[in-house]
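tool_log.txt
---
The assistant was asked to compare two proteins side by side. It first ran the structure predictor on the initial sequence, then on the second. Raw inputs and outputs are pasted verbatim so the downstream comparison step can read them without reformatting.
(1)
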Amino acid sequence: MSFRSEKHGKYILRPAVYSDNDDIREIFESGSFAGGLNVQFLRGPEPLASFAADGDHAYIIAAEDTEKGKVIAIGGAVVQTLFLDGTPAECAYLTGLKVHHDYRGKLAFIPRAYGIIGKTVSGCAATYTTILDGNQGVIRMLEKRRKNMPEYRCIGHYTTFCLGRGKSVIPVETDNLTGFDRIVAQYFSGKALAPCSTEYKGFGSKRFYCLRDSSGDIEACCFIGDQSASKYYRMCSYGGIYRAVSHLPTALFGYPAFPASGEIIKNGIITFLYVRDNDHKLCSAFLRSAAYASGFPMLLWGGEENDPLCCAVGKMRTVRYGSRLYEVLWDGAADTLINGVVGMEAALL
């Protein structure tokens, strides 16, 4: 990262380095998602490697408390090669500012950190990020225009769906990618922020599942991967109606089984989901069968509200959580660059 360390009182802003991993892991473990499903999102013992796995480059800024010799906040961007207006382009995903629980509301140098990140990703065609619906305080703070801060322009809503194990409804083929390159060129290239490559490590150790017609052409397909080497979730606790539902045998009714409090969630991640003509019934039959074949007790897939497959998956029995999707505009830029149906993958968020 091309900037020098900066002193702000007892804090230093500097590029994160490998030796910061333990402190960064502690930052992640000090927080959790808000709401009825209280979940921790964790990036394992080497968070910096986890960030790097999600793109071509990761630029992570660390804020160090010099009196304690400890990193207490991190933020940055992951640069990815994504489709934008039908062509590959370097885009930056803002990872969001993560602050250790003990320091929340106490840091005054956040605008300067954003300034550094903005310069770092200035060569990217577009910058985007997501914020969970439940983080209303963060949403209010970032949507309000402030001096020396970029504009967070909401361009849509993104839903992450949690699917159960499923059952074999139709036979699915495994690990035969014949014809998938045509699907990428004809289908995924038309979606803004869809990855140009299937080979980012952040997709996890994955297998390809597909259904073919009598001519051998792909009717439906996806990858299902295990991301646990770089990121995973821990169920902390349940609130509201989920407290009661979590004790029910939900898997018997086609919903995901609820893990016990404190348990690491074993899930697969669905990427590059394609269903011919966005057929709802075909989508359901294919995903249920692929989920069963994968062996994962729970699968995750995310879709933007204008994606027809979001509606198709939404008709299945799922647990879901929502996020706001933002284009981040720097230095007073006025034009929205991310247009049309968005195809970003939950695996890389």
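(2)
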Amino acid sequence: MVDQILDNKIFWHRFSPASEFCKRRLGAYPQVTMDQGWYDIEDKTLPGLWMNIWSGGKFPDEFIIPTFHAKPRAKITDFLFSEGFASSSSTFIASQKCKDLLDNYRLSAHQLYKAKAYFNEQALDYYIYHFYDTYFDIVDFKKTIFHYDFLADFKGDKNKYRDIEFFINSATELNIKIDQARLENLSIKAKPLVFIQKPCLYDLFYIRSIFLGLFITDDLKNAFIKNKITVWSLNSGFEYDYYDVRNYKVY
């Protein structure tokens, strides 16, 4: 079984816009701050951004679009790294140039907000992309091996779930399994996460729960490079999860 997985060529790349892998190119880390903070997950009445990376979902209707302020020595880049963001996030900040490029490609379900970023006195247009749903159709359930992982508040016997591997037949079954696992403060992850080798509906899509992160096609990767889009990184999702390496190429 493992040999079959090893032979499965991956056409998709784990995509990290303005992540920690790009520190040297940002000029400052974090690169920008926000004039509105994150929602407190326990108190959603507070203004600002809110994202629950475990359950996904849209930003709330009362979402307040923040203004970004560059830190001293921060460089102007096409992707911005703000406080509160992470490489596994479903949310990123992109320049006008980057948005114009992405408008020509197919993106999975997301929300889009126009924002301003200030570099000294210079006000620049940026866009917040928030991907709120998982594109499970690309997952090859016949080859993907699942396992349990422990959430921070897990209090049970870890030996009961450690080293257990299993297969799941469909996205519906996976969602049921994820909900059941959460009742015991467990998550479901994949090692390795294998994608189906067929044309995809999207050039940029989000996978949550079993593997947190964004993925892009070769076509979009090459378009980023050709158009000199700055400060992003990628690697093979297969290499990342199966071998537990972070062999990221930074642009």
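---
observation on (2): Residues 1-9, 50-54, 239-245 have pLDDT under 50 and may be disordered. The CA atoms of residues 141 and 169 lie 6 Å apart.
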